[in-house]
Amino acid sequence: MKTQKIWFITGASRGFGFDITKAVLESGDKVVATVRNNPEQLAAVFDNNPNLLPVVLDITNEENAKQAAEKAVAEFGSIDVLVNNAGYGILAGVEEATDKEARQNYEVNVFGTLNMIRSVLPQMRRQKSGHIINISSIGGLFGFIGWGVYGSTKFAVEGITEALAQELAPLGIHATVVAPGFFRTDFLDKSSLVKTENEIEDYSETVGAMRQFAAGANKNQPGDPKKLAQAFIRLAASEKPPVHLPLGTDTYNQFYAKMKAYSEEMEQWKDIVTSTDHDDQK
Q1: Top CATH class, 6-247
Q2: Among 161, 180, 207, 275, fewest CB within 10 Å belongs to which?
């Protein structure tokens, strides 16, 4: 029975990707860690660990993604765990985000994730095992002022993973979507959070207030990225991993608050909800 797993982690140079890579190497597993440039720099940070293979990758380039997956298999023999971590945030009112800004966010967060899934699954299907872990967000479970466009990309990742998990189950492959709450990473820094060209004054009390909140919350978030990384180790070791794994007390509490509000609203509108079926269905 294989005990040493081969992980493929995108966006490994910083944030969640870096912390997960560190935890995986410390566990004794091997990691193919992708970066946008300077793979030697990442290798040096980990003292040129032979269990680490840094690879330059642009996840929006499908051919590049396929080549990276092939390189991983050629070097380590397989890919057992894919962590789709690479992505970025955009803080803007839905009207404020330009077409270009919104499409680029989808290009990375959604289509980049799909590129990696398509590139890695042929190997997992051949070996009849594997685990795809897609990183969503608390913003992929609930709509928040100022996060509509970014959150919608994560809502997409949630839906993709739910369907994928059902499609892969008969093949011995798992799929999990992890939705972290606010963790103390560089997500709210300029390096990870895009500032849009448009800022409409009419949204100053809503989106503008969220911009101010985000600036003040930076580096004060409740979540610990190192503990998140350990949660990933436990997740990948599970024989029956969940399809959904929200992380953080903030996400946990928000989830149950939404479910309560959703249920109450459903009951209030039940007559309308159930009134639209054909008569022959009653």
Answers
A1: alpha beta
A2: 275
